[in-house]
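## Example pair
The file below holds two records. Each record gives the amino-acid sequence first, followed by its structure token line.
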Amino acid sequence: MERNSIIEGVVVVLVILLIIFLISKNRKDQKQMEEEIKKSEIDPKKHDDKHV
């Protein structure tokens, strides 16, 4: 019984770490996507040079 409880404890810790990892990765990806959307919505800079 002691061996099973140790394995269960390790599994629970690994699941918690996996959840924390996935949440942090999701937030990072969301921020990156928001920045890309903001960049795509901004009008490109126009050149003041004479065009041919």
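Second record, same layout:
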Amino acid sequence: MAVTNIFLLLAETKPSYNWTLNNEPFQDDEPLGHYFEIINSAIKQIKEKINDEVKDKLRDEIKRECLIGYYDENNARNFLECYKGDEKKYSINQLSFLRKIVYNNLENWRDDSKQSPDKEYKLFNKSTIKNHTFCEMSQRIVNIREINYALLNHYACSIDTDEIPVTIEGGATVKVFNLQTKNSGSLAKWLVNTIIQKRIFNLNPKHGENGRGNQPRQAVLECSKENAQDLLNTAIGGSGNKLFNYDKTHDKYIVFMDEKHNECEKSYHGYHVDLNSTDVPQSIKNRFDTKMCS
């Protein structure tokens, strides 16, 4: 079973380091609610994407992906410190909301910490850090490299590079992938490139390209092969050897057929069908209807 570990980091009332962001912009009632909702949405997005892929991988007898989420109890308490003694000011009960979204979905890594207090951890081989999520992540990466790791940076850290290098004891340097919730594209890109087994789109001449060149009585591919690859990356599965997506540019569904050349590479060809086509199961249509209405 393959495993993916996500570590949530929150802004803080009293920033621990000069690159830690202050939660002051979220201390009013409405921004605070929005802050929590973004966390909830990010966690939900990751879980839903994993769940979609788990179904496909089980169907194709590929290793299942297991998602484990972590938070830092000290970091969460620091975030909430500014609200102590002033609960009546807010329509949101901060502690209960945080518990609902974070505590109930994630594990506190401090319950089973792997970092060593005797080792020196440095960011970019310059800034020394101690007793921090970055230390924990880097140590776990060194201990078990087969696991996928990523930081869920929720307006918590001013470092905006895609990868954050952490050096341990002047020796090994590992890179922590920096998923910034303010950049939904970063999250989607990481999910596609890291969690999901790479899918390859192959252009099949019988379906043509860009709405032309298909063979007689064969469905046509309305878009370019580059656009088809983008749609394949986020396609969802039903049963059998097909994946599906909704192409909003052409207002049609696109069907991807698994070519099953080998188990190390998932290659597909594809074609478009009308929205009323029976080539797309009703259960899949319902899922797209839900997404389009949400």
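Notes on the second record: Helices lie at 29-59, 73-80, 94-103, 133-143, 184-195, 225-233, 282-293. Residues 53-65 have pLDDT under 50 and may be disordered.
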